[in-house]
Structures are given as C-alpha cells and as structure tokens.
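Continuing the batch. This is chain 6 of the set; chains 1 through 5 are on the previous pages. Same settings as before, nothing changed between runs. Recording input and output for traceability.
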Amino acid sequence: MDFKLPIREENSNKGTFGKILNISGSKYMWGAGLLSSLSALKIGAGYVVLASDESVLSRVNIPEIVLAPLSKISELDATVLLIGCGLSTFRKGIFKSAISRNIPKVIDADGLNMLAEIDFKLDKNTILTPHPKEASRLLNCTLDEILENMELSAKQICEKYNCITVLKSHRTIVTDGEKIYYNTTGNSALAKAGSGDVLAGMIAGLLAQGSSPYEAACLGVYLHGLAGDLAKNDLTAYGVLASDTIRYIPYAIKNLLSKEV
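Output for chain 6:
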C-alpha cells in the first residue's frame, strides 16, 4: 500500500489538525487514557480532550492533554471520537450517547465489549480495533472460529457493524469489507499492556488530521508497528514499553517521510 501522511499546512492552528474527544480510562486502568491521548498528539492531532473519572484525571500530568469530567461530555465539541481504552463496561449509558455522534470514531477495548451487547448500527466512518477475543464477542462466536480465518472474521465484522475493522495480531488485518491490508511492521515488543491504547490513539490522530477512515486505520497500524520496530532496535523486544513506542512515533514518521521524497 502506498502510504501518504496527512498534509501539514503552514497557515494553520490547532483546530486545523482536529479536536479529539477521548472517553477512556478508569480507576484501575488510568494509563489507557493517558497513552491513547498522548499518542494521538504525538502523531499530529491538534487538540485532545480526555474525558474520564476524577481518579484518572488526577493522575494525568501531561500538560498538552486537556482534561474533562464525564459529566461534561455533552458540552464538548469534537471532530473525532475515541472511546473505550480502559473505560470499563459499566459506562454503557455514556457509550451509547457518545457513539451516536455523527463524527468519525475509533472504538477500542471495553467500547467493543459494550458494542457487542447492544443492537446498534454504526456509520461507515467508524473504525473498530478488536483483538481476536474481542472479535469473537462482536461476532458471537468462539475464539477458535476467529483464529481459523482472520480475514473472513474481519470482513464479517465490517458487514455486521458497517465499519472499518482493524483485527489485531502479529500480522494485523485492516479491511472495509472489500479492500484489505495485511500489515508487515511490528514485532513481539508490541505484545505489552497499553500497546492497543497507543494504536487507537494513533489512528484517531490521523483521522483528526483528515485521513479517510480506511487510510487512517492502515497508516496507523503501519506506523505503530514501525515505531515498535525502531524501539526494538534500540531497547530489544524485551524492554520496550507502550510508552516507549510513543517516543518512537516521530522517528517512524521521519522514516516514512524519507520514502515520500
């Protein structure tokens, strides 16, 4: 696939590069909100609001991330919604209201688990990012059935939910139900807690900058894997944390830019 980064206009401001509402994190998984927000900014989004519990907001000390309580969600404008990273599934009321917004969306983790329990047809500018177990919940089938045919499973999710699917594995599949991309970057260093949160934030960050949902999903997966490869080269596959992957996002972008020239 011929990857193209979103254009960065010089005559611009933070609004030019999108405003993400990130509804993520919970008491025992507060890091998910931080990682997904920071990775969205690191890949170029102009503005990220993290809406979460006070137990999460009190721990986030990154000055570039704007913080908001869950009670204020209805008052927050956004051009992209990211929801589900470490959210915990008792937020079903908030989840239904949020995904009803007519803006591009990335739904990850507990957002996927909540989606599997409700009858809701998404719009085509939505990206779902399941791992195989989450995919089995979305399709109401066994994990073995997912693993037997990952491509078919990804396409079935697209058909059922009217979405773009990012089915994560050592060779992640991205599909809109017709076009399909098999990712070739990444390594076992990415098999760490928080890695999926970073990926979700990166995809949302590309959406915020104007990439189409399918392009954002493919490019986000590619750059996430490449950042993991670059981090592995310096830190070994054993020592890379999800937060290290975020530090290597600019180097992955630089690598891709050098190929575009």
